[in-house]
Target: Uroporphyrin-III methyltransferase
Amino acid sequence: MEIKLKRIYDEPADNDGRRILVDRIWPRGLSKDEAQLDEWMKDIAPSDQLRQDFHDDELSWGEFRNAYLQELKQCRNELEALIELCKQDKVTLLYSSKDEQHNNAVVLKDYLKMLETN
Model:
């Protein structure tokens, strides 16, 4: 599986493959045409409460990561669909966070890679 990560605000590229937004909330100031999405998998994103607690600095990165991994265990159907897409084509997981190293797409990519090896 080839999975890339990219901010939704970055310019789409020919080598993105399938562009999948993995945020629960639509990115501010971006039209659907500009986003050039193939899918929006908002049900696989962190819960509103978890996202808010992390952005309000009520959770550390490690706490957020662990809590989100627990939430992902409840998204079996969505994960299976995403894994199938990843097996068929290159996939770019899109996120809106300014922090490129500490966001839900990073956790999701790691989780998908772990599932692939099991």
